Amino acid sequence: MASSPISVLTNSFVVSKLPTTTYHQYDSKFLFGDQPDKLPNPEKRQRLVQALQTVAYPNVFNPPAIYDGGRLLYMTQFVNDGTYRVHGSNQSAPPDARGWYSLRISRTAGKDIVPTDVIELMQGKVNDRTLTAANLLQLLICQAPNLRNPNNGRAYFSGEEKQSLRGIPIDLWRGFYQAVRPTVGRMLITVDVTVGAFYRPGPAFDVAMDVLNSRNVRSLYMRDAQHADFVKVARFLKNRKIQVKTDKNRIKIIRAIVPGPVGAIKFTLDNGETTAIQKHYLAAHNIRLQHPDSIGIVVTGKNAPRVDIRPLELCFILPGQRYKAKLPAEGTAAAVAYSAMKPAERLQLVQSGKNATVSPVQEYRNSEFLNVAGMVVDTHAISVQGKMLRVPSLLYGNKKVDPRDGAWNVVGSHLHNPKALTNWGVLNFDAGCIQQPRVQKIIQDLMQCCSQLGMGVDGPKVVSQANGHDVRGALKRICDQLGGSAAVQIIIVLLPANADPIRTAVKYYGDIEIGVRTQCLRETKLQRANNQYYNNVALKINARLGGVNVLVDSPVLTELGKRPFMIMGLDTSHPGPNVARPSVTSLVYSHDTKGAEYRALTCIQEPRAELVSDLARMVYFALMTFGDKHKTAPAILIFYRDGVSEGEFPQVRDVEIPQIMEGIDKVWAEKKLPHSKPKVTMIVVGKRHHVTFFPSIPNQGDRTGNCRAGLVVDDKGLTNPQFPKADFYLQSHSAIKGTSRSGHYTVLRDDNFNGNLEKLQQLSFALCHVYAKATRSVSIPAPVYYADLACARGKFHIDPQSQLDLDSSTVVSGEDGGFDLDVWNKAFGEMHPQTRASMYFL
Length: 842
Known about the structure:
With 842 residues, this protein is α+β, with helices and mostly antiparallel strands. The protein is built from 21 helices and 38 strands.
């Protein structure tokens, strides 16, 4: 287990001078006229607070306050409690004009934030004061750029560098992420390049045509509000900020759209006269509408005294509006490609900027907020000490393979435990494009790859066609032809290019109702399928049949194998903001003696609940499954937990670990087991920390310029001060393109390794090599990667007949407007016993 030391650079910068100023905390509450419950949106709140300090009361708020965007203000001076008035747009507006806000400010009962709170934060002390100090430090570094640019709190986007998505009116903007990170003995600021999606600015007419991917102006001459195109445009444009050609000094919000012809819509003028929109614009503004038959834009809310409708062609979508929904499938690949940057280019952009893009690191010295705080940030990326772990060899059926730079070739290798494929079928849902000669070619190529990997393969016994309107019937029929679902090994399903509903139905009826394994192949992938593609399919098929593709030659796994052990991965995925859909949780657990074969359990729970509510039952079920197979109980349980932030570590430790112990206790009590209960190790694996490592000298990296796979950094100057002896970064993979991302590992409990961090590092690295459908090491251990895959398949558990969809924008609530989990649970199906026993989630 020897490892070699190495020095690498990272995208973190030392706070060379800590804050020297004391801050007082104030509570703030906005009042709009006589409507105390009408709270401005976050962006407007920021704008109002800025106007309050720079325009309305510059002498009172000097130095300027730090605002958290919600209720809290932090000030170095004392301010009298009271109500301060500020206008939403123009401070010179008369007192009786509309648009005035009142901001009620009062000093909180909380203690002042003093410089010693920051010192305690670096010592790992977590309490209300140090957490508040951490929040203040984050606000200090973000306040200046966030006031100038669109942002999401920790990342801002200047718009200096961007790329348009093809076929969708969305632009990708490069930006900078900033995070304050206390470490052992010093405070760091991590800066990274990030990408955000924004609505494309421009004439609303052009944007609406882009939404429909149309060049025909008549496509916007819609009369039916129920038409799919009308609904699509309405969803995209709603709540967008616009300017109207005849009213350029005011920003308006698109509240809705109305069917055309907009020019014929009549309204009442202030003098009581009724006129049509087209006639009004010609008479009042000398504007002859070019598209009077198009849809119209509503810019007034539901409770307005009258509806204000503007012609689409006169509206302009304003820049800088963040697109917060999930990107359409056609935009995801482009976003990933745009996000990928060569390591050296990323480090240069973070440290110094490039062309018109200025790095925040170079702006810290000019920040009024940092200067008031007495805080100074070094502009040079720090160097940290790491080590290179020994890369483990991989055991195939006929030879040993040594990975190089995180990858290896399976040509000439037989799978470690190949399964024979003798009773299987092919079901073609795209007979129009994938005709019979091509189907036979697909079968031959797949069989050839399976055979070369050591799998004994007979030809499919049934090859049939079906349409997507009766997926359940098609699956049932082919299973009957093959001797019943219990006898069928797998069904290869050929899908058309746009087949998400068919695939969802195939997986639901196959996984949940019928109990048959399926492997879907999409027509777009088959068009360019080569040997590598079919090899990857063969790897998934073998694992789903219960075979083992590869084992890793790891001394730690060998040592663990002296006693029965289980490795588990746990993850939670959530719906988007303000969407009432359940969160999905998955527990994946090994059930062999080598840590290579896994099963999964998936549940749903309340939206955005991070802690797994049903963990005790899931652990109980996993232990019972292991016991039924091996006729013994495990002595060792190792959990890899994904998806929690550092602020949630105490909750995982105090809530989830007791649930694990509860599941163990129930098994021991029910089975009356005489031997000791298993020892538990819990490791949290983080992927969204933005800490990145770079070679300190050019020849230190791999062919892509990244640090080589196997880099571990547990330098105390970079690790979490709450867990100074149980915290490390592991870069276990090599990026094909762009910059490699390390996993951040924090050990919350360890009953098995006696504080030997290197053994945990070696184990984690080894488990990154057993991801069954890849011939590359992956970025996090396979069991937690599998848990992530199982969560993503949550939608396949929902009955297609239920009208519920975990991916759609449908909001399902109870009668009182709250979320009704029972509705979802009734539609959520458990895995069929015949498919549950396989690695169906690959």
